[in-house]
């Protein structure tokens, strides 16, 4: 707290000093002293000027520091914006539909406003403390002995009249600014305190509404349906317009509140659309676009914008769990409308009619929930929709299931849809209206969301297959790979993700997601102690999730570079395979390091674990570690690569895949040989394709007839040139092992692809036989 009395005393002295009469401080002349004053301490005019200058600098810095900077003006702007948000929320609370969605949004926003107010109050207190520190600088001036001596000396004051006038001017301006800013800060603090009280009261009201909706499930809110006396809810009809205005204002506020996140989502969806269009344009330009029909694409062949919109809206639905009811239901309806465009001309007439019926029931349900007051009309309409929903789930839903990519989860979605509609009817009859409405909306959202997620999964798989095929075409590989088995492999992790998204949407609509999340967070973050080690279940779960994701990434990363298991052996890109192996190694190392960091294990405990692991390596894991280290050496040293034809011991074949522990080799007879990496480094390896993919082969033939060696040589060269499988860049070699009258034994050596050795030899024999026979010579081999 500012020491006001000392501050006033100091400046009263300054004012007195400035306006004091110029009189002599002594009436008589001083007595002359006989002793010398050479060595006495005296204060000069320069010292007095320095003291006055120091006081002026203190007042100048106090003026500058007490003025509001840009951060303070930004704070005042935030305070003003917070007031606008709070006014809108408080107004909406009085007139908007008290459904769970709106209440959840109000609760989330009020919590954030409460946090903002706390931060603003802290910032105001900090600025008040800074003003107090500035005032303390004036108090420190009293400790300046030179300045205080000057104030008391009425004679010397006369010499510094101008300086004291400037000092007084600085003091008055500083005092005025500090008083003004102190008042502004006090006013802002009073406003924040009042708002905190208003937010606290609003939170209590919202939490009470949420508690009524979710906990007291059998609490009677309205009369039993057979006891309602009203016939026409005129008030509800009259209030539709005002409710629409309120719901629109709440949705607009939320839209502005989430603008940054939604724009980020739109940006990434734009990148995705550009990425897809680039691949499609490349295939179309090079004449491969028609081959996409062989992949059974259902959505990407109908344009780009609509599938990308499905991806973006599906993410938006899951990422806006606490949006107001109007915003979220419009988002859902927009998603369903876009899905309808995708289904058009693809679904059968019966399936399409059933889909449109589901969409119509959902739209009516949303309108009744948002804009119609609770009464006989609304409750009866809900019951009719619930009955139609039950019939739909029992009879008509099968036509939708046949059109979807994922059919396994649709069974559970159907059971949930029928069960929630049945419970909604029961609660509606007995007056539990809010819970009934919530169950009805959740039933329809759960069913429509599983349809949307099924389409989303199919679109994602089509995007991945498009990337793989485009990359392979760029590498010159036109072969259509087994996309169905590859899709079955890729969809497994995505199904887990889609299931998680579906559960989140259902739990959020049932108003249990927050409690589930809190309970789960409490369970996962609870510290557990075993001996001297303290851990949480969350750290352990996160540890295994990161390792699982790292293994998935290293397993599937090759697909994004166009690599699949049925690779054409002559088109293997060995350099790319080496990069992929290094990438997989880096992904695994990064994953394990992140997993260890996420586990929260202290380094001293980790060193103990590594020591125990070292003992395990010495006792039984040395072969595992040997193979792992050998795999790393093979990756960087590259004595063999994927696609090489090698011989090791008694085994030979083509290298199919290289891992960190083992290497797979395809034998000529179709067997797959798995060799530990340690064996590859410890034994001699014959690599036929280390430099190139060509092998020198030989054919021994006998020629009979009236001819000469020169003629035979010309015939052989001409015949081999006609065989496309033979590499004529390296001249064939012809050797004569026996020559007699009319009979020649010839050894022919030529180069061919090592992957098609037998085929090349067979073709060469056939061409040589036909050529020599045409010349009238006898050919045998």
UniProtKB/TrEMBL annotation:
Any one GO molecular function term: mechanosensitive monoatomic ion channel activity
> One short Pfam family name for this protein?
MS_channel_2nd
Transmembrane segments in this chain: where? 255-276, 299-319, 325-343, 355-375, 381-397, 409-430, 450-469, 494-513, 533-553, 581-600, 606-625
Q: Report the residue ranges that make up the Mechanosensitive ion channel MscS domain in this protein.
A: 623-689
Signal peptide range in chain numbering? 1-25
Keyword terms of this UniProt record: Cell membrane, Coiled coil, Membrane, Signal, Transmembrane, Transmembrane helix
- What InterPro entries does the record point to? LSM_dom_sf (IPR010920), MscS-like_channel (IPR052702), MscS_beta-dom_sf (IPR023408), MscS_channel_2nd (IPR006685), MscS_channel_C_sf (IPR011066), MscS_channel_TM-2 (IPR011014)
Output a single Gene Ontology CC term carried by this record.
Answer: plasma membrane
**Membrane topology classification:** Multi-pass membrane protein
Q: Which residues form a coiled coil?
A: 110-137
Record's subcellular location: Cell membrane
Q: Which PANTHER family match?
A: MECHANOSENSITIVE CHANNEL MSCK (PTHR30347:SF1), POTASSIUM CHANNEL RELATED (PTHR30347)
Q: Which family does it belong to?
A: Belongs to the MscS (TC 1.A.23) family.
Q: What is this protein called?
A: Mechanosensitive ion channel protein MscS
The organism is: Flavobacterium hydrophilum
What lineage does UniProt assign to this protein's organism? Bacteria, Pseudomonadati, Bacteroidota, Flavobacteriia, Flavobacteriales
